Structure formats: C-alpha cells, structure tokens
C-alpha cells in the first residue's frame, strides 16, 4: 500500500526480529487488548530460525518468513529478499524490533521504517551498539540519564531522524541488567505510542521528521 493509505483502514505492519521478540510480544498484546487500535501485523520476518520471536509469531498465528543472512551471498541479495517479502505483503509500515542484520533500504520504503534504540541517540548508537553493549557504554560514560529513541531508518546504523524519546534516570547502583530493565519498560510504552500516532494521523505525519 502507498504511504497515502486511507485513514480508517488498519495500519498494516511488518515486524522484523532477530531474537527474543519482546517488542513483537508487546505489540501483539496491545493489539489484542485494544490498547493499540487500528493496527494489524501483516508479516513477521526473522533473521534467525530458532529464536523466541519466531515462537511468538507462530503462537499468535501471524504470517512468518525466516530470512537468514547466511543463506545469501551478500547484503544486496539478502536485502532484496526482505524487500520482496514486504512488497508481497503490501505493508504500510515496517517496524524493526531487535533486528540485528543490515537491510539496505530501498527507495519505496524511505520514510516508512521505524527502529527503537535503547539509548538517547545520537549518543551510544551505530554499528555494534545493541543490547547490553549499549547499557554498558552508558554506565561507563557516567551519564545521569539514558532512555530510548524511536527514529526513522535510513541506510546508516541508528542514524535517521528522531521521532520521539523517553528518558530514564541512571542510578548509582545500576548494572547493565537493571538499566536494561528500566529502559525496556520505557520502550514498551514509547514504541506503541508512536505507532498509534501514525495509525491515527496517517503515514504523512512522518514526513515532518525527514
């Protein structure tokens, strides 16, 4: 579907995962209980076959494609397979949910792909900054606060225009685990809030950011 989808029709999501599927699980739960309205998950793509995110998609009865990077000769072939799957599913918006592989963004998806990063970008982002590595870097830097960032995706890691952020304090006795738990709770609120905004106001709402 085009970026000018008709308001009132459900926003069709593709969710891309590589691991535990916590974000996918949160979105599915909120869609099911009505906290996230006018949104459907049209497709889940996983870059790994034996991860909890796959189990969550199957348990929810969601269309699932496993596209493993090691099965393709290069980034271009891997990315083209992802893009073809999204095209077939006719999704409106692509949501990265702990997707750890590089997908080369094609022109037709510019301005239609979101990511959430577990820090306050532009700090503590870029290639190699994911999961506990981010929280360890935040603690090592001695900053007073961390949080999460929803941003539009481009062809650089953690680089696209920032849409929204949520801040949490860094406490004196924090470990990477305790900080991750606090940031994760903020992520579970922020990402659905942004997706709801898009469902309510349309994909054109995203154009103001980039």
List the helices and strands and how they pair.
Blueprint: E1 11-17, H1 22-33, E2 39-46, H2 52-59, E3 64-66, H3 75-89, E4 93-97, E5 113-117, H4 132-141, E6 145-152, E7 162-169, H5 176-201
Parallel strand pairs: 1-2, 1-4, 2-3, 4-5
Antiparallel strand pairs: 5-6, 6-7
Helix pairs in contact: 1-5, 4-5
Structure description:
The chain is of the alpha/beta class. The chain has 2 domains: about 10-110, Formyl transferase, N-terminal domain (Rossmann fold, 3-Layer(aba) Sandwich); about 115-195, Rossmann fold (3-Layer(aba) Sandwich), CATH 3.40.50. It is about 35% helix and about 20% strand. It has 5 helices and 7 strands, in the order βαβαβαββαββα. The chain has helices spanning about 20-35, 50-60, 75-90, 130-140, 175-200, and strands at about 10-15, 40-45, 65, 95, 115, 145-150, 160-170. It has a 7-stranded mixed beta sheet with strand order 3-2-1-4-5-6-7, with helices on both faces. β1 (about 10-15), α1 (about 20-35) and β2 (about 40-45) form a beta-alpha-beta unit. The longest helix has 26 residues, at about 175-200. The radius of gyration is 16 Å and the shape is globular. The model has no long low-confidence stretch (mean pLDDT about 95).
